[in-house]
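Next up, a specimen:

>
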Amino acid sequence: MARPESSRRFQTLPQQPGAAAESSPLGAAQNVAASASSKARALQALLLRTSDTIGTALFREDSRIIDQSAWLDECTVTHVGQGGSFLVRRMEPKSYPPPNTVLTDHKVFIVKSISVDAEVSDDSTLWDAIDIEVRALLHPPFRSHRNIVTLVGLILDPYRQSATYFPDLVLEHATHGSLADFQASKDDPLPMRTKLQLCLDISRGLRILHECNVVHGDLKSENVLVFDDGTGGYLAKLADFGSSFLESSNLATALKVVTKPWEAPEYATTMSAESLKLTDVYSYGLLFWRTVMDGKNPFTLAPLWLTDIRAMDDCKRNSHFSHKAVEVLQSYIPSSVYEELDVCKSVFDCTLQFDPRYRNMDRAYAILERKLSGTENQFPDVRSLAGALPQNENVQPVTLPDPAFDIYELSHRLSWDVQVQFVEHFEEIANVPERAASSQSMSVRGASFALFRCYLHGFGVMVDVKQACFWLTKAAQKEQEMALPLLWRFHDALRCPLTISWREVMMILNLAVSRGYKDCMKDMERMWETLTEEERGEAGRPWVKAQQLYRTFGCGAGLTCFLERNIRQNFHIFDPEQLVQELDASPQSVSQVVVNNLGHGILHYAAASGAVEAVELLLDGYNCDINSLSTDGETPLYCACRSGHFETTQALLHRAANPCLGTHAGATPLHWVSQFDEDKVRLVVDALKCAGANLEAEGGVPNSGPEGIHNPAGTALLRAVGKNSLAAVHALLAAGADPLAGGRLTSPIAFAALLLLPSILDTLLTYVGAYRGPDSLLDRLPRLDEIIGIGSARSMHIENRVTLLGHLFRSNVFDTFAIFRRLPLSLWTQRDWQSKLSTAWNTGYEDIVEAALYHFPPSSSQLVGPLQKAVLRNHEPMVKILLDFGADVQIPFEDSQGRRFTLLQLLCQRLPNIRQGIGVAKFLIDRGIRIETASGGTWPALSLAILARNFDLADFLLTRGADINRILETEYALPGLPGPINVTIFGRAAWIKKEEDVGSFRYLIDKIKSQDTPPSSRPSFFIGSSNAITIFHAVAMISSRSSPGVIGTATRTMMDLLLAIREFNVREKLDHAGEVGITALHVAAMSANDEAAIALLENGADPNLIAMGHFTALDILLLTPRTAPLDAQAAAALRDRISIIERNIRVCGGRRETLGSSAQQPLV
């Protein structure tokens, strides 16, 4: 018999338009893989290839991920522009509202994508550009700033025209486009005041960048967007941060990308971070110049008349360039606005200076702000500069915190396989040699901390506290910011022995204290108790020195603004005699001295450092303003309280310091009372109250470290609760603070319950008389179900509980629930509180569940739902707890269609993102659940596990005697035969719907091939209740009408797997017809399954066997009616497949048995 033509040759037939995806087997497989997992892979690529910081903002409650990216395909697209790396498009949806809440407030978007034609040597350059832009736009101060463009979201599908997985950036749409386009489109020039207002907006945006240690790097009119401001005017916002610098290191560098002629003269030289900021100031001066001249290039106008770039560069190097800028402006603007020349000249003087030392962005901002506010004739003070920053901003470096791998969100988004890939990638980075680490986009310390979280939460690995502590130690040794304060606390709480010396741990804790983590001093004391007498003698009392370090060098909050390297002019504040000499020799008056870039004066410096003699000297001898304000609005009293210096605070209050003036981010000195020693807290609170402090003033105390979740904006009492300071709580209550302020769910009482602080909670409840239960009080107290529901989102995760509570993280749960048990019944016996607790049960807080069950024993029926959820999540500790408290494993789960599943069947349908393991299955079987139970249209547990690709469970069930060849009820029919066909799981696994389903088929093939598989666990070649139907029939039965690329690829894979088994690839099995008289080749002809037909013919199947008494395979191919409704493309593809099968059959000697009037063309 002649051999058939190869599948590859037949695939070269002419293709219909749009059928290219099917034409190439490799291309089809690639397209299938991309469409099936693009979001997961793009998400993985984003987090693995970009910085450690992005995930913090991407995956919290206000997530910016846009999942419904297909909806954006239905948009009207307008090309906006294209640069070397990015393509920018304007997209206006045809339907509204959008399905994603992120998009709700935007009817038009700008989508910024990596260009297909990006001219770069490798992807790393493009990833760096995305990394920098996303990090900048997601930094909290920028996200809420009115003069920084808003990043609406990220689309994690790959850009359609490329094979990469770069995310698309979705930005808010600027009504008027860029400032350059906006001015160019105007027939008449904008009023001068409007132009100055736009420049003021730009200066505000630039100042917040610099405050957060970000250098824009490419400031020009094209990178400024213009919006309507809602009042009939215009609003300018900075955009395009792809050339920015985000690091606050001391490493010297140079600008990466500039646009001539809008760059500073020194742009190509190597500079420090502070010097780089000054290049932005110069570029701002050029932008200002261009803007007031209506967007024209001033270099090309009279009297300069420059057109050559080199001549422009020479002009900028002239020390009198700012005067030339004034001359150009004076010759351009009409005489009617000459009065504005003085303002412009002043801005030029503090920006367009060849010597960077004479550039001053703060002064330029103040000049414009005074001009536009009508106060240009008033002497500016530091308070005017503070207006550039929104009152509630957290101005901190973008580089903190370092890692941003949000386990909670990603564990729900990613399949277990992808989670494993993350862990493997982190381990690869964390284990690289130190000298090679610089080539990695994620740092060694960031990867180590991510691994700590993975092992702690069971992300991609089984929970392993010893491994978690191992990686935490490695991260802390690398000085990873968030690992430092957690090192001893987690080892102590989880009872894991330290793997480094106690001396190194003490050094790490000292470093953490210096960065503002006060609780590490308690860790030092607790660790000191574990040392031997000899070690204690060597260690001394390290927390005493740490406290001095904390209060003096870190200002009590881990700040660096008063460190020597950041002090502009150093004064010996702890040596009064030397200080007097320095003050007397200073050319400035004491009140004008500014010691750092945050506008702190020498009195702030002394107060923050605890130099009480210097404070008294400055106030009594030099008449310093006791209430002077820094740029951020901090008074000396605020600095003293933040550092916890009692004597300094006392000295300021005795001299009538105002505790209400100049709050920072709304926080007052009263918000920092927990910083003081416990025996001093009451005295400080009383003194502040006597001085006029407002006990109920609300404010935020920024904290971006691991303790930040415990520091919400609110009253001083709420802050004291968050700091777990019982002394501060007692003092504030005694002073009259209201523990119910803020509402039932946001009061200090609710916060104490949420953070599981029983001592503080008991104190607050006793203060308000809650245990007596007056009716008027009940509606103002939080209920237990509400607390659990809120806390399950974040604060009750083990990581956050250990961070706040240390070794008490478990016992505090029981003690807090015991307090609720003492409260009036209406606060915890809500009808559905158990159902609300299922949120906590579902996410894995087994100790919280155990405490709830202990204090509030439910009935057996109330445990049904939680047990089912725990089983479905394969949460072994949770299942064990629920079973110990009397949960009934025999109560089935009923789905929406009325089908009833045992818990074992439910477990075997485990979702792809759920942890692996067989522990729960063992529990259920040991409790009496039968393995083969299946009723009401359901399948046995083994079949469900195989189809769900939970192969660890499948292997376990086989060892317990599960029948792999049990016949299943199915809805599939064999062409030409009436009724559905019931087959084994082997046959069912062949009827795939998507590419991933081949995994189940491959698992069963491996069982056949493995020498270790016992005969009872091997799938049978015959898949029906009799020997009529074989596995070849099942594969040949697949119809490729619905998804031809997927089906074709999968069919070829499955046929290759089957034919590789020697005992299957024999003539008698290829041509087996059984009692129905139909071979697999006949079935392939009926289904137009060209891949199966070719594979069978290539391996010797006989094309001339007769089916149903009359028909050969060729008869069946040409006579089978094909009446399903098909579009033109699908019909053309079907004709191609029929033609392929016909040609192969004829090559192999196939003929028609039925001729004459019966012959007809297939109906397509």
About this structure: Strands lie at 65-66, 75-82, 86-93, 109-114, 151-155, 168-172, 224-228, 234-238, 893-894, 900-901. The chain has six domains: 1-38+1022-1164, 53-172, 186-240+248-386, 402-500, 553-694, 710-857.
